[in-house]
Q: What sequence folds into this?
């Protein structure tokens, strides 16, 4: 009887203990005596991604990368994330701040805005070509801010809620590297060293929350996704993956080009953000970012 009891306990112990679970719970990268490379329980092959970065993003440009596979894992891969010049990537946080206020009943995105001559600035966008006195909704201004990266529309949206509201939104939601310091095409602020900032970690987490409809609310997140899918700058991720739906935002200034968002890929969707600084050339940076994007979705 005692032998039967011992045997039963041994069998039960083997059923509960799983060597695979033990490995996944304790190892990332090299697996020691098992003689192979494995990912941790998060399913992210950190070493493999790092090797891809070293192979494809290797032209002397400073690159920062965020990569996650939200259908597969709750974890993400982050490389060289720190506060960087955000260029137009800051516009997704401006959009988020407006949508949060709309959700809380503090404004209506259907409200009408009248374009004034003083609102018009140069750079990207089409709204500066509209005559003063033109009317558009706050929602349409945000759409232009994202799809066309319209600087005039962006400044109108900033004026509507205030810079402090954008920075409060970023701080409350844990986007610690993100700060709006100036409006678009404010050259006096640029000369004074005031640059808007964000990081691949902040942007990646924004897109991850948006992917899961946990950013503001389901309905407002859907509107933001619609805008991001309408992005007209298709030089980077869309050029690399022409058959994929991509909800993303780009940014460019002298010395940098950024792209980031959600790449829909069947059962293997990816959230990818790449920021650069001090590029060797914009064309070279974009070509290398395209190469990495293709590998990231495989």
A:
């Amino acid at each position: 009887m005692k032998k039967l009891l011992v045997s039963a306990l041994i069998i039960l112990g083997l059923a509960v203990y799983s060597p695979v679970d033990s490995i996944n719970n304790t190892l990332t990268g090299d697996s020691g005596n098992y003689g192979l490379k494995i990912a941790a329980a998060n399913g992210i092959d950190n070493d493999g991604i790092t090797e891809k970065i070293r192979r494809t993003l290797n032209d002397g440009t400073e690159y920062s990368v965020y990569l996650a596979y939200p259908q597969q894992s709750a974890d993400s891969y982050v490389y060289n994330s720190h506060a960087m010049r955000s260029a137009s990537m800051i516009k997704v946080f401006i959009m988020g701040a407006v949508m949060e206020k709309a959700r809380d009943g503090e404004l209506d995105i259907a409200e009408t805005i009248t374009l004034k001559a003083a609102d018009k600035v140069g750079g990207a966008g089409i709204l500066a070509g509209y005559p003063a006195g033109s009317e558009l909704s706050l929602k349409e201004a945000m759409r232009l801010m994202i799809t066309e990266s319209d600087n005039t529309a962006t400044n109108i949206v900033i004026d509507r809620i205030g810079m402090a509201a954008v920075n409060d939104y970023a701080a409350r939601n844990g986007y610690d590297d993100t700060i709006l310091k100036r409006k678009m095409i404010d050259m006096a602020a640029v000369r004074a060293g005031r640059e808007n900032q964000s990081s691949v970690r902040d942007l990646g987490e924004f897109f991850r929350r948006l992917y899961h409809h946990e950013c503001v609310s389901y309905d407002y997140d859907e509107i933001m996704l619609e805008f991001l899918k309408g992005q007209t700058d298709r030089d980077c991720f869309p050029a690399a993956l022409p058959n994929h739906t991509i909800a993303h935002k780009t940014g460019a200034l002298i010395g940098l080009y950024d792209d980031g968002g959600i790449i829909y890929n069947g059962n293997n969707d990816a959230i990818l953000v790449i920021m650069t600084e001090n590029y060797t050339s914009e064309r070279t940076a974009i070509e290398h970012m395209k190469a990495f994007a293709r590998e990231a979705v495989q």
